[in-house]
Write a structure and sequence with these properties.
mainly beta, 4 domains, 7-stranded antiparallel β-sheet, Immunoglobulin-like, about 0% helix, about 50% strand, Jelly Rolls, about 725 residues, disordered N terminus, Methylamine Dehydrogenase, Chain H, 2 helices
């Protein structure tokens, strides 16, 4: 018997009933863009602090920021290696231009003396009274951080050999500690005057208590420790992320982008976070000196973005060396952090966002600069300052609230063209606008922003029907939360993928039958399914049933009802077999249809899930099915030494002829014209030499449905 190939149609949509798109809570609103607003940890958009531009230059990046005792700040920039001083009033002055393109590190000692580290030919300069002199050349390619020590010495973090140098005066210094990592990326001094160092590429935070004596406080699991902040009680806060070193080195003209050796850290105690408690295991005693580095493993100096894993994290290392993860993100890189009272403030690369973590570790988005490459934070006397890149700027976060701002939602996909309803929100006064389009990102094909919606009682969306929608809110004083958009997606019709018709035994067979099922597949080309299609054939080797089965679904997930029809090849009208079917199979007694070619049609409707006027219906017609329950008629005549067999079948073509002598094995014979392929065929059986006596010859002919017609002939051979 023959079957059909599945006709395939795919679509993406949602249930065709009224839907509600709701933005509610901190994580939802974090997906949007804003300016002049803050997002509280409980998910309210409120007017935020004012962001004032304090400094701007023609440099693309501000890499380093340091505050002097007099309240002024020094800025190290790239890609022309300039050092600026910005006083407390916001007046900027170019202090020095290096002969190297990047100033990645700046620090100011307790006497107001400025030190700057240049790259990619790592050198440290001392700048005092407007004059710069070379202070120390460590022989390293990069200088990533500088830290003034309480005794007046200067610690220098370098790459790409991961060494920390200590310089005591101009031209005098040596290696203080060799980490075994590629880069030392951050430095700080703890409450006991000990040096803290962050590294790359294994993200290890070291406490270096004396020359060649260090303890690994924590291994972050992220490539780089970017920033370290210490508290008076001995608590340490660390910021870990991936890719900052590669990003900074790639900005240097002519910098190598080839492979960089990554040297595994020397054997030492590394704290490991317990998966259950979130605490670290007790560390081993400090090593007296570092062991020899092991053979380095070579990795590419670039970064690979991996979705679904953390890109950055903030850690709190308690005085007892236990570690807590305060914040992590799969989408944003945290580039710097400062401690402001009991709050931790940090900045990320996602449009220059500034976050606050309170003592309960609840995050709040306090400002969004909408600037690229946010790099540094510093808490100055005049307020919190943020450094941004692409066009180097210093922004001051005012203590006073600003005049308000705007929030722009992410784009929402309705799945198909939708009819828009009402926009609703909770909170105070705001002006909402919407726009719609049929491309995933807003472009010139989208509608303009609508007229403002200010009254919740008259908040019908006027934007054109489309698949995608976005809203924008403008706030001046009060806050908003829980914004909803109601819409009705266009109802998508169901899809009938395939229909198959097969013969099924009415009861289990107890003996082997020659009845077989043959199948052929066809696709629905959208027109007459019977055109040019080889028909399938159903036969019967005993009591049988005809099973009609189909595959169908609805892109909207709607419930479906089916109706099943049939008609003969020479008939014009469809006859209903059964309506309101919920199953996708139907059994039909094999005797109710006489021999002939038939078509079956399945109609699928989604009316159980939709109003009658919106319900959709789809149908599919099967390939022609040839029902053949009648065996061929076989006649045999002996002529001399041959038996001439004439066979005919009214419904299907003949397929095989064979004969048996005296109940012996069956022997095949081909049609006289060479091919058995017609409804009527002649077969010539040559009679072999038989022993004297009577012999029984049985001839069997099969049609395409497996029905067998038999006849016999008695031969008598004289002695």
């Amino acid at each position: 018997m023959k079957a059909l190939v599945f006709f395939s149609l795919t679509a993406m949509s949602f249930a065709a009933t009224t839907q509600i798109w709701e933005m509610n809570g901190y994580q939802d609103f974090l997906r949007g863009r804003s300016q002049g607003l803050s997002l509280t940890h409980d998910g309210r958009l409120v007017p935020g602090p004012r962001l004032d531009t304090v400094f701007t230059s023609d440099q693309p990046q501000i890499w380093s920021v340091a505050q002097a005792p007099d309240g002024s700040i020094y800025l190290g920039t790239g890609n022309r290696g300039r050092l600026y001083r910005v006083d407390a009033s916001g007046n900027a002055k170019l202090v020095w231009t290096a002969d190297q393109p990047e100033i990645f590190a700046v620090t100011v000692d307790q006497h107001g003396v400025v030190y700057a580290g240049t790259s990619p030919d790592g050198r440290v300069y001392r700048i005092e009274n407007g004059k710069a002199i070379e202070y120390f050349a460590p022989g390293a390619r990069y200088i990533w951080a500088l830290q003034s020590a309480p005794d007046g010495s200067l610690f220098i973090a370098t790459g790409d050999q991961g060494k920390i140098f200590r310089a005591t005066s101009a031209g005098h210094g040596n290696v203080y500690y060799e980490t075994g990592q590629s880069h030392v990326t951050a430095l700080a001094i703890d409450n006991q005057g000990r040096l803290l160092a962050g590294t790359e590429p294994n993200g290890i935070l070291y406490r270096v208590s004396a020359p060649n004596k260090a303890f690994a406080l924590y291994s972050a699991g992220l490539p780089e420790i970017r920033a370290i902040v210490t508290a008076p009680d001995g608590t340490i806060y660390a910021d870990a992320l991936g890719g900052s070193v590669a990003k900074r080195t790639s900005s240097i003209p002519g910098a190598s982008t080839g492979a960089t050796p990554v040297v595994t850290a020397p054997p030492m105690s590394i704290t490991v976070t317990d998966a259950q408690s979130g605490l670290v295991q007790p560390p081993k005693p400090e090593a007296s000196k570092p062991a020899a580095p092991v053979t380095p493993a070579v990795v590419a100096q670039g970064t690979t973005e991996v979705t679904g894993v953390d890109r950055s994290a903030l850690y709190k290392i308690n005085p007892d060396n236990t570690v807590e993860t305060l914040w992590s993100s799969k989408d944003e890189n945290a580039y710097d952090l400062v401690l402001s009272g009991s709050d931790l403030i940090f900045i990320t690369d996602a449009q220059g966002r500034i976050y606050r973590l309170d003592r309960e570790r609840k995050p709040a988005l306090i400002a969004q600069a909408n600037e690229g490459d946010a790099t540094r934070l510093v808490e100055s006397r005049s307020g919190l300052l943020a450094a941004t890149g692409n066009l180097a700027k210093i922004l001051r976060l005012s203590a006073n609230p600003g005049p308000g701002g705007w929030f722009e939602s992410p784009v929402h996909d309705a799945g198909t063209v939708a009819r828009w309803g009402r926009l609703g929100w909770r909170g105070g006064g705001a002006a909402f606008r919407t726009r719609t389009g049929n491309s995933p990102r807003p472009d010139a094909t989208w509608s303009d922003w609508s007229d403002p919606i200010t009254d919740p009682a008259h908040a019908n969306i006027s934007s054109p029907n489309a698949r995608y929608i976005q809203w924008r809110a403008e706030l001046r004083s009060s806050g908003i939360e829980d914004v909803t958009v109601a819409y009705l997606p266009q109802n998508t019709p169901p899809v009938v993928h395939s229909i198959s018709v097969t013969a099924q035994p009415a009861a289990p067979k107890t003996s082997t039958s020659s009845t077989a099922a043959y199948s052929v597949t066809v696709t629905d080309g959208g027109g007459d399914n019977s055109a040019g299609t080889q028909s399938s054939t159903l036969g019967r080797g005993g009591a049988q049933q005809i099973q009609i089965a189909w595959q169908a679904d609805d892109p909207d997930g709607d419930k479906l009802l089916y109706a099943l029809y049939f008609r003969g090849e020479d008939e014009r009208e469809w006859k209903l077999l059964r309506s309101n079917l919920t199953d996708n199979t139907y059994l039909l007694d094999g005797d109710v249809l006489a021999d002939g070619r038939y078509y079956f049609k399945v109609s699928a409707s989604d009316r159980p899930s939709n109003p009658a006027e919106l319900a959709r219906e789809t149908e599919l017609v099967s390939a022609p099915v040839l029902i053949d329950n009648t065996p061929p008629v076989v006649n045999a005549t002996r002529r001399a030494n041959e038996i001439e067999v004439d066979a005919e079948d009214r419904a299907s073509t003949l397929r095989r002829c064979e004969f048996s002598i005296d109940a012996g094995p069956w022997s095949p014979v081909e049609a006289a014209d060479g091919v058995t392929d017609s409804n009527r065929e002649r077969f010539n059986i040559r009679v072999p030499d038989l022993p004297a006596g009577e012999h029984l010859v049985v001839i069997r002919v099969y049609d395409a449905a497996g029905n067998a017609g038999l006849t016999k002939l008695v031969l008598r051979t004289p002695e």
